[in-house]
Amino acid sequence: MDMLEEDLAIRDEFETKKCGDDSSEATFHFVAFVPYQDMVWKLDGLERDAQCLGGSRSSEWLNLARPFIEAMIAERGGVDLHFALLALVGDPLGSFVSVLAENVKALQKLRTRLNAVEPDWRSFSVYDDVDDGGGVILGPDMVYGLDDESISQATLSPFYEEKLRANTASSLMGFRQELITAQASLRRSFQEEHQNVQSEEVRAATRRHDFGPMILEWLQMLCKKGQLKSLIERAEDNFMNYQR
Asked: Residue 214, Cβ neighbours under 10 Å: how many?
C-alpha cells in the first residue's frame, strides 16, 4: 500500500480543524527535511510526493530548511497545534570507532617507520608496543568495535601522512606521543558515550507504545471513506509494474 495515501484521512481532519471545527481530536503527522546529493527535500506525510527545496552543500542544508520550518509553524500557528522538532543523526559511537581506527592505523604505520629510522626506539619509549589493558591499542579491540577490516579501511588524513614522512626519530616519537594522547581521549569519550547510550536504551524501553490500535484505526478510517480498496489495487498495480 502506498503509505503516503494513508494520511489522506489526517489531511481531512486537519482541514476540518483549520476551518474552526474543534470537535475532532488533534491529528499527528511527520514532516522530514532530508539532505541528499547536494539537494534538500521536504517529505510531508500529507503530500504524495517529495518537494525539492533547492540546492545546498551538506554542511549548510539547515540554513535552507530553516525558513520553510519557520513558515510552516507561523502559517499554522493560528490553529491549536503543537510542534516538536526531532533530529535524526548518525550513531556517535560509530564516529568514535572511525576516528579510533584511523588512530590505530597511524600508530601501526608509525611503528614501521620508526623501525626503519631508529631500530632501538623502544628503549626510550614510555609505552610498551603492546596493549596492556591500560596502555595503547595497536590492533583489533572488540571492546571499542575495532576489527581488522575497520582498521585496514581507515583513511589517514593528509596531516597524518605528512607527520609520517618525518626523517628523525625525535619527530616521529613526538608524533607517537600525540597519537597516544589522542587515543586516550577517544577511549574515554567512547566509554562515556557508550554509558549514555545504555542509559537512553533503558529509558526508551519504558516509553515504548503499541501503535497497532492507531494503525488499525487509520485503516478503518480509510475503509469508511471508501479509499482502502482503491489504494490496495493501486499498490498491486505498482508492484506488478515494478516486477516487469
From this structure: 11
